[in-house]
Amino acid sequence: MDLNMLSSLLLLSSIALADGPKFSVLGELEPAPFEGVLFDPEATAILMSEKEFWSSECDLEIEFQLDKQATQYKLEFENAQISYMAASDEYDLIVEQKDLEIEKLTKILKKQSPYQKWLWFGGGAAATVFVVNLATNLVAASK
Questions:
Q1: Can you say whether the dihedral through the CA atoms of 44, 47, 53, 55 is positive or negative?
Q2: H-type helices in the chain, by residue range?
Q3: Rounded CA gap, 1 and 3, in Å?
């Protein structure tokens, strides 16, 4: 039986006892005051230090996993910031292009001669007079 397995079994069985664990230091050829398993000083030292070892091992593993997770979240956060900055820059570029296009179209509209503006206005007014006159004649003819 492996020493780790034996120590685990001993720890589990001692936890199951209602009286709690018992410990006694015996000299050579002395009878034990209770039924149990006798360990030499080296085995006892190993059993007593294993709790500290496993506790330290657990603390190290927890610290490692937390550091790993923190690094992963930091990377994801930095990637999200980069994506945001890229989208913001793209948006700013599109707005700038649209502003330039609006400015260009405004200049084109302003360059049109006043004659053409009055021509379109006059044509629209004439068309309106024609349609109103036509509608009046149709109403009068239908009576």
A1: negative
A2: 3-16, 41-111, 114-142
A3: 7
66, pLDDT greater than 90: yes
Cβ-contact 32, 24 below 8 angstroms: yes
Average pLDDT over residues 58-66: 95
Q: CA–CA separation, 48 vs 65, rounded Å? A: 27
- Say what the pTM is: 0.43
The H or E element spanning position 40 is none
Show the tokens assigned to 46. Answer: 């190993």
pLDDT above 90 (res 141): no
Instruction: Please give the Cα distance from 50 to 43 (Å, whole number).
Output: 11
- Dist CA 87 CA 80 (whole Å): 10
Neighbours of 128 (CB within 10 A): 10
Asked if 30 and 22 count as a contact pair (C-beta separation under 8 A), the reply is no
